[in-house]
Design a protein that fits this description.
Blueprint (H helix, E strand, L loop, with lengths): L3 H6 L5 H23 L8 E5 L5 E3 H15 L4 E6 L6 E2 L6 E9 L10 E9 L20 E7 L3 E6 L4 E7 L4 E6 L10 E3 L10 H12 L10 E2 L5 H11 L2 E4 L12 E2 H14 L3 E3 L16 E2 L1 E4 L1 H8 L2
Parallel strand pairs: 3-5, 11-12, 11-13
Antiparallel strand pairs: 1-2, 3-4, 5-6, 6-7, 7-8, 8-9, 9-10, 13-17, 14-16, 15-17
Helix pairs in contact: 2-3
This protein binds 2,5-anhydro-1,6-di-O-phosphono-D-glucitol and manganese (II) ion (3 copies).
2,5-anhydro-1,6-di-O-phosphono-D-glucitol binds next to strand 5.
Length: 319
């Protein structure tokens, strides 16, 4: 069986990027171990602070952020980081070549119910003679050199792309390695499963209302098939299900937000998931454009997300 280091060694991944990926994934194993202890370690519940986006931080949002930040800072290849839980980008090593944006813990509302959560990361090659600034990192998602997530579910899994397809690794706790278990994942173009938070229905645009109405009506409406619905409340879990068995995921913008930006964050949620989906033969769009083409304007920018089975994303966009 191949493990992560075998796969990276046999690919054209530069040594410095290998180092960043190794540090990131090893820290995720530490996060996974902390999550396993749950209440026993006194790490559940609220941290008592808000992040820059006005969300109440959980203790584990802060703990996992600090673990990743400390580990990546110690890696000479890292030029700077951006995180959901950091107000600004944090310059690390001026000589470093890589910028890492991450969501240290995705699905925070699942922590206290012992349900699925994960860590999402997005990596860019970026060099310069001065310490990094935020402007240096406003790079479109199509420039990502690697992206992935670690899912903390019944087993801990790493899902990774370095631009040559998508591989899934399962963490082997006996040998402390990520073992390759699913190679070159492909998302079927058709699906009969969708994911959306229906409680926002009355705030959606007319086009999303009409599209979802037709999914729900299935064969009794305009569609030739019926649809099932799932919602994990952690993007990482919903995207993982789509990579495993297909589907379409939507977090559209809605009228609660006058800026019509959506909820999910471009740089550490939408972009890495969009790269994974495209590498697996799926699609990832906003209401109007390919996510990976967006020129970011801020590190914590939000964006509408419609991703998954290629034909279903296309269908949604016709509304
Ligand atoms: P985070 O926990 O990192 O702030 O992200 C939560 C996001 C995403 O994971 C998920 O798809 C979505 O919020 C869930 O939103 P609802 O609360 O509307 O279900
Ligand atoms: Mn959050
Ligand atoms: Mn998140
Ligand atoms: Mn988060």
């Amino acid at each position: 069986m191949q493990n992560l280091s075998d796969v990276l060694a046999s690919s054209a991944t530069p040594d410095a990027l290998k180092a960043v990926l190794t540090v990131t994934t090893e820290t995720c194993i530490d996060i996974s171990n902390a999550l396993k202890q749950g209440s026993l370690a006194g790490i559940l519940g609220m941290a008592g602070n808000e992040n820059v986006q006005g969300e109440e931080q959980k203790k584990l949002d802060v703990i996992s952020n600090d673990m990743l930040k400390d580990a990546l800072f110690a890696c000479p290849a890292v030029r700077a980081i951006a995180s959901e839980e950091e107000d600004y980008i944090v310059p690390a090593n001026t000589d470093g070549e890589y910028f890492i944006a991450f969501d240290p813990l995705d699905g925070s509302s699942n922590i206290d119910i012992n349900a699925m959560v994960g860590t999402i990361f997005s990596i860019y090659h970026q060099t310069g003679d001065e310490p990094a600034t935020e402007a240096d990192f406003l790079i479109p998602g199509k420039e990502q050199v690697a992206a992935g997530y670690v899912l903390y579910g019944p087993s801990t899994m790493l899902v990774l792309t370095t631009g040559q397809g998508v591989n899934m690794f399962t963490y082997d706790p006996i040998n402390s390695v990520f073992t390759l278990t699913h190679e070159n994942i492909q998302v079927p173009k058709e699906t009969q499963e969708f994911a959306i938070n229906m409680s926002n229905q009355r705030f959606w645009s007319n086009s999303i209302q009409n599209y979802v109405n037709d999914l729900v009506k299935g064969k009794e409406g305009l569609r030739e098939k019926n649809f099932n619905m799932r919602w994990v409340a952690a993007m990482v879990g919903d995207v993982h299900r789509i990579l495993c068995r297909g589907g379409v995921f939507l977090y559209p913008w809605d009228n609660k937000d006058p800026s019509k930006a959506g909820k999910l964050r471009l740089m550490y949620e939408a972009n890495p998931m969009a790269m994974l989906l495209e590498q697996a033969g799926g699609k990832a769009h906003t209401h109007t454009q390919r996510i990976l083409d967006i020129q970011p304007e801020a590190i914590h920018q939000r964006v509408a997300v419609i991703l998954g089975a290629a034909n279903e994303v296309d269908k949604c966009l016709t509304y």
